[in-house]
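Structure record:
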Amino acid sequence: MKENLKYIVKLSSVALFSFLKINILATFSTVVVAIMGFILLTKNIDAGHSAHTSAIPFLILTFFARPVGSILWYLVCIGSPFLFFALGNKYILQKLSHKIITEKSENLINPLLDRILEKFKAKQPNVLRTAGDFSLEKLKLIQDIKTDKAENKWLRKIIVFGLQKVQLDDVDFNQENQSFTNIIKVKTIQSLENISQPSRKLIWMLIAIQWIILVFIWLTKY
């Protein structure tokens, strides 16, 4: 028990470090590109037309002067934080899932799944007749896990991450007395085991796109 607690603390540290590293890098890139892009977009705007103009009219004036560059700049400023946050969260969950499934699956994931499914078992239908029955119960289970504060937050996130990837392609719903809990446990473990080594490729691609947009603003007049 003490060893598992230490491991959970270690997981939380890994998650925090990865979150800070990704977001510091992403914030730095976004801020630099946003500032430099703004300077490049506005440097040739007639000062006589813009000297007494407030922020919003000035941005509109910039848009009419450089429409394509302005739209790309707006996308960098507004869209990048959301994309970095989503990609960063996905990367962290993949990293933690891969780490825990290869190191502590038997000690942490399996017992946690057993506890969660035991709580849920009283609510399951007697028979799963269709994929729709299964999907509905899976959604209920995911919601129960998200609100179950008795379990560790990161372990719950990992279980939900695995559940969301569960596929029903090889489930024979014609078999009688299908057990939702048995199916979900096996499928969740399989989906977590199939998670490959996490990659930051998409995050680096997004940073590269930001700088390509900056180069476009610098080299063109559109």
Notes: The two ends are 62 Å apart (CA to CA). Residues 2-42 form the longest helix (41 residues).
